[in-house]
Design goal:
By secondary structure, the protein is of the alpha/beta class. The chain folds into 2 domains: about 240 residues, Spore Coat Polysaccharide Biosynthesis Protein SpsA, Chain A, CATH 3.90.550; about 170 residues, no CATH class. The protein has 14 helices and 7 strands. It has a 7-stranded mixed beta sheet. Helix 8 packs across helix 13, helix 11 packs across helix 12 and helix 13 runs antiparallel to helix 14. The longest helix is centred in the last third of the chain and has 30 residues. It is globular and about 75 Å long. The termini are far apart. Its main location: membrane. Keywords: Membrane, Transferase, Transmembrane, Transmembrane helix. It comes from Achromobacter pulmonis. GO terms for molecular function: glycosyltransferase activity.
Length: about 475
Amino acid sequence: MKRTASPTERPCDNRTSTWRSFATISSGLCFFWGIPTSSYGSIAYFREDHFSGGRPCRLRYPAKALEILVLDDSSDETSGLAQAKVDHYAAQGVSIRLIRRQMRKGYKAGNLVNGIQQAAGEFFAIFDADFVPPEDFLLKTIPCFKDPRLGFLQTGIGYENRDQSFLTRFQAMEMGHQQYVTVGLSEDGDMASLSGSSCVWRRACVEALGGWNASTVTEDVDLGYRAQFGDWKYAYLRDVVSMSVLPDTASAFRVQRERWGRGLIHSAFKHVRKMLAQPMPLMKRAHALAMMFSSLLLAAVYVVFLLTLPLNFLVDFEGPWVQWVALVFYALVALWALDNTFGARKGLRLKDRPSILRTLWETYLYVAMFLPMAWHYFAGGIRALFGVYGDFHRTPKGQGKERGDAPPPINRWLLLGEAFSLGYSLLAIVVAVAKANYVLIPINLTACVGFGIMLYWSWQESRQHG
């Protein structure tokens, strides 16, 4: 019988699925031993207000085995601020360098490729500029790579400003649900779509895959898919959490979500044939398809919304079977939303939990916000369909300089789409009342709330910026 190591003998507890590319890890079973040089990289979109604390320089790790790379391709005064901070910590003996590109070719993907070419480490820990890793991040993650087939490792992400507004609470809840789903996928050995920040990559894995690909704006997902289709395992370390900052304006949110939708839908169609060619059980293949095309499903919600007006003329909603289908549909949506919101509420400290009534109200608003988000993903999918893959705009967060910069042109088009959608939903309600077709009215009312919220936030934002 094959001997099983005890928890004290194992750096990590790997649950490896029957499909060779996956594993999940519990960091509580990690311990430290001699580790080869590791490179920590902060990606190009640097802002002084996030880096000024010097927290990346406080990572507990053997000094001779760690180098910190600040990757910068900005074109404003933040480059000077970054260099000043790097010089400050370098003078204190920290192994830190600023790597600056003159041209932003390939955006984030190009910056990462340029950075690893100058890095000495066997592993790369990668963080967006607003991320703050815990001091023991490397001590808990690097030992897990004792498994030579482990190509990359994802850790948890928290949000410093989650309670700043309903917009940030919505994002924290929505992305927290995604992390919850990812935990389940990893534990079951299923394919997952992982973030490109707060993660660690094995250099050999990155180089074997040819590095990050600039043909898509979700280069992290693209590389993760390629790794999972190869001979590499991934791991999700859920109890190591890095803090980040959520977009807190309507313009930043909609531009970010359009980019995500465009990149995720493009990556899904780009890799679906490779996924179907992989040897895996039927249910795992079904889970992989559902995961890869979840963004397309969200975009399809907007198509369903657009159908509500013509359906008032085409369908007789008086039939009992139609009403039963509608009742079941609305009940499932309510259960899904309540599970998410009360689950998030349960995770808060008792004194921080909102009242039951407020939680119920925010449950409805949570559902309503998915309608404008579906529009953002739909717009991203249409742009991907017409070959717009690499149009990248960084997301302003916090109180940095870029908060005062004008949003990119795509923001105006998305805003106009929200205004159109609000008018469209109002028209659909009028038609439904006139024809006594009340089944679809909840969808249109919810759309009015969601698009109305986004337009109100945009109006507030325009007032603040004059």
